[in-house]
């Protein structure tokens, strides 16, 4: 919890940046009554920079805020839980600098997100919609992993990460 208190302003800025990043690209998916966006880029970058608890905060707050802003209130509780857990898992082993380890845990976090949204979509709109959500969520997470790894590698090379 100490890291959270010391970096509250940074977490708030990363959360706001994550929401803005997600708002720049929104692709509605009518079958699931949801959308695909760049939320994972912000969540994964914050999680790898600051660790699991910070990833959980950025993930849950930005996921919930995005649903609220875009008019998807039925998704807020699911997004808070799913993206929070996703961010926690993505950052849990953030101290490990090996690229393969980082990618492994980003993939685990992505699988959790895809499964979580499958069940949430199935609960809200039926199993067919849940199945339809899988492809969009895999694409969203794959893109999030690639872009966030590029950002983290650039920050590593510029020695902006301690």
Global Rg: 15 Å
Give unreliable regions as ranges: none
Taken as a percent bin, the fraction of beta residues is: under 5%
Order of helices and strands: HHEEHHHHH
Helix content: over 70%
**What's the number of helices?**
7
Structural class: mainly alpha
Quaternary structure classification: single chain
| Cα separation of the termini | 19 Å
Approximate shape = globular
Q: What does this 3D model show about the protein?
A:
With 162 residues, the chain is mostly helical. It contains seven helices and two strands. It has helices spanning 2-6, 8-24, 39-50, 52-70, 76-91, 99-125, 127-157, and strands spanning 27-29, 34-36. The protein has a two-stranded antiparallel sheet. α3 runs antiparallel to α4 (52-70) and α4 (52-70) packs antiparallel against α5 (76-91). The two termini are 19 Å apart.
Give the structure's gist in a few sentences.
By secondary structure, the protein is mostly helical. It has helices spanning 2-6, 8-24, 39-50, 52-70, 76-91, 99-125, 127-157; strands at residues 27-29, 34-36. Helix 2 (8-24) packs across helix 4 (52-70) and helix 4 (52-70) packs antiparallel against helix 5 (76-91).
